[in-house]
Amino acid sequence: MALHPQILFIVIHMTAVMTLAIFGNLFLVLIIVRGNAIIRRRISPVQLLLLHTCAADLLFALLSLGTEILIIITYPHFGGPGWLCQVVRYLQMFPLYASPFLLVAISADRFQAICRPLENFRRNRFKRPNCLASAAWTLALICSLPQLLVWYKTENGECATIYGRGVTLLKTIYVISFNTIAWLLPSIMAASFYYCVCKAVWASNFSHSFDTQISPATKLDVFNSKSFQTQFYLERIRRGSGHMKRQTTELDRKRVQTVRLTMTIIVCNFFLWAPFCVVNVVQALAPRLLSKHLKQTIDASVLPVISQLSIAVYWSHAEILRGK
């Protein structure tokens, strides 16, 4: 049976994006691993979390896009038993939760490393990102469990939801819960972490330039405590040592680059998720306001673009990926 032209376009588009996502993320993994192998350095905590994000994007390409393409082609008949319908929908939802949760993990890791540096050096620097990534994957597995309850195979062989196509209270609660957990809450948490990170970076840059902008007499009047006296003493030592100054400047530059990289991913992720989440909420509350083809187009366009976001941003920051 021939597919509708619009459905055919969606299938071709999703197939192309799935292929690009697979090869693109595999190439990114190769860049990170190969770059650290060349300079004989262990993968950094940020790169470790970025590898987890690449894994989530690969799962999205294979589990979400790949299975959805097969379902669209054979719609309305689902070629499998009822339990397979539930498992497939569960696997489709899993990467949609894992990706934003991992972005929150990256934000929390940067917050801990920049805003609490002493605590960061006291502990194993690789233990924290591993714990954060494990928590993100575990929460994604748990949050995807409702898929096993809301999907079933009908007598006509269609993989459908228990709340049907109309407006029901259960459907509204489920859709709003998904958008809140997978988009709104992670965005708020990531924004909170990065607000603290940007504030700490700005304060650090301000303290570095404070010594040259304000006279010594003013500094003694404003900062007369021993802690600030010690801070300015160490700052003068740092400025007097050329090697230490170059090393500190390089560390500051890499820190700013890392913050810029991860913050760009999170900001873009928020705005790219927004159309998909808003459309789903509107459809759950007032489905007559949206046409079926419009929703299918947004679902087929926005989510694949989100999967390509990391690739585009990572390539624009290739220096960090190579570990330089």
From TrEMBL:
Keyword Membrane set for record: yes
Keyword Ribosomal protein listed: no
Start and end residues of each G-protein coupled receptors family 1 profile domain: 24-314
Cell compartment(s), UniProt: Membrane
One GO cellular component term: membrane
InterPro entries linked: GPCR_Rhodpsn, GPCR_Rhodpsn_7TM, Neuropeptide-GPCR
Transmembrane segments: 6-33, 54-78, 90-111, 132-152, 172-197, 261-286
SUPFAM superfamilies assigned: Family A G protein-coupled receptor-like
An example Gene Ontology molecular-function term: G protein-coupled receptor activity
Pfam families: 7tm_1
Sorted UniProt keywords: Membrane, Transmembrane, Transmembrane helix
Protein name: G_PROTEIN_RECEP_F1_2 domain-containing protein
Native source species: Toxocara canis (Canine roundworm)
